[in-house]
Structure prediction request, 282 residues.
Amino acid sequence: TVLAAQIAGIIDDAAGKGLVIRAIGIGFGGPVNREQGVVATSFHVGGWSVFPLAAWVAEQVRDSLGAVPVVLENDSNAAALGEALVGAGRGARVVVYSNAGSGIGSGLVIDGQLYRGRASGEMELGHLRLSRDAGILEDSSAGWAIDRAVRGAVAAEPAGALARAATATSAPPSARLLPAALAAGDATAQRILDMAAGHYAHALSHVVHLLNPDVIVLGGGVATIGEPWRGSVERQLDALLMAPLRPSPPVRLATLGEDVVPVGVALAALGDESPAARRGEP
Prediction:
């Protein structure tokens, strides 16, 4: 398979550089059963639910590496660990990380250790309901929800800054149009950003009221909007907190970029004590 060939290529590349692979970490975009090394549910890509991914990878590398530990981790948990230990949360005791992109995830790190709930997962911020009868946070603040709002604005304001930017590109209108429009002071772009950031801040306010972390780190594709996104979330979050918890914990942008999940799962794999990792076998 393509994936098996890619794994073999990574092993060959490491050997060519004289590197020793002591453990393997896998970051998966959805809930996983970490103790069993099994994908629990795949929301974005079909065919992966209830798949024993850690055992499959262990089998692929057995001939070349032997029975090395293989750790399967939720990608947001992995990113949280990476940012907490060597990224934007470094030095803080309690770190909440959240990524917004194709979905919304989050992770919690306390004293350098990932918080673990039941085997089915934890910290599913994107599935938090903002009121009893409302949808989940992803419906208003995931990347695709912002894309939808941008498309609506382009259609409603054909002479607006977003429509002009869309005309200048060959790609469909999306959140990628926001930074330039925001830099130009476009009110519609600011409204779209503040709406999505406001819902996000609302969800994070519940996190702060329950956990009161030392720092909140924002990652994912939406966070590449940069300071306008971070600032809007932090400003609106502070207004939603009870007085004793103000000012809000500092809200920072993630610093590890596209390496955040690989760095996090590497750290998780090298420090792992789960049964699935200790077995290093199906």
Remarks:
- The first helix runs from residue 2 to 16.
- The beta strands are 24-28, 32-33, 38-39, 70-74, 94-100, 104-110, 113-114, 215-219, 251-253.
- The CA atoms of residues 102 and 144 lie 6 Å apart.
